[in-house]
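As promised in the previous annual report, we have extended the structural survey to additional targets. Below is the entry for Alkaline phosphatase family protein.
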Amino acid sequence: MHLLVKPYMFKFYIIAACILTSFSTFAKNPIILISIDGFAHKYLTMYKPPFISSLSKDGVISDGLKPVYPSKTFPNHISIVTGKYPAEHGIVHNKFYHRKLQENYKLGAGANDNRWLTAEPIWTIAEKHGIKTGVYFWPESEAKVSGIYPSYYFQYKHNTPNKDRLDKLVEWLKLPEPERPNLVITYFSTVDSAGHKYGTTSVELQNAIKELDALLASFFHRIEQETDLTPNILLVSDHGMVDIDSNVSILTKTLLQPFPQLRIVNGETQLYIYESNKNTLEQVKTHLTSVENSNHYKVYLAKDFPKHWQFGDKKAGIPDMIVEAIPPSVFVKPDFQVGKGKLHKGTHGFDALGNNDLDAIFIAKGPNINKGIVLPKFQNILVFDLMVTLLELEREITPGLHDKEIVLFQQIIKTKSEQN
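The corresponding structure token record, generated without further manual editing, is:
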């Protein structure tokens, strides 16, 4: 069935109704959303992980999943599960200042204060519709949004083995139907950690990918053997990875020494500057564009933020100025050394527009998913809309969903006749 939508029809409820009517998906097939943090799209051809590659052959794969700005872990993971840009869901970087709360954000802060989050994630929406969800680690999955937790979730512990996470997912999927979650979500950080510490061409990274690929193969084999379920699998990542060069790193303290009054949050690939005085901001910009090494970064006042950042509306966490590092440069502390401390040989967070190294992955396979289709790149906020559609949730989906995105969904999801 070809779906033709005219421009004047782009109202959220109409789009949602058209997509759901067209595809007639079945929520009885559970969704398993898995994110491999820091798995760059280029790793698929560089390292050819056998199980992940087989998923793509049996299902749908994209030429790349584009991160939202900035290409950091928390903003992107939360965009994936909310369908919102960071300015809308509230987590605008891994590190930033919130004017209303008068605090600097720390990873996972939503668990103690849900005001950090300003959009509902997919598990909250599903639970509202009576669908049980299980989340074994996902950024901010411990936050009680709209008074709701996932039916099953765990407090984040970084050193929890990947196998333990997957074993628990199998346990959830083996529960009796009334107790079983129909949306299961987990995330792994081992590939990201190896990319940071050792770089994108390292043996250590290759081994991390190989190990996780084998675990995923075993996990899905267990589902096949130990349950009667045929899940829809969505395998994604949040961003890629870029090798950095310590020889062109930028010492933040020296760079802004003439302006000790500034509130600066160093996010490694960006400096977020909060300053209400416009004259001071102009002085800072003039200074930054004239000093030595100014070719290693770009300076933006809020009024000049690029449109694709989606930072146009003044929100509590959006800074008044952003100093954007140009890879392979990053903003570092004076005592930084490559291979030591928190920053290593690879990173992410840069503007992903035009930087294919930062492309993430999208692979889908399942009873409601087409086979053998390669999609063009698309932005990760649409993964949320895809889950909404597969779960048959009566909800308005992402504003501005246009013809090309609707066609994208048609390519991913089988029509009713194809499913029968």
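The longest helix spans residues 203-226. The chain has two domains: 7-243+355-419, 246-344. These points will be discussed at the next consortium meeting with the crystallography subgroup.
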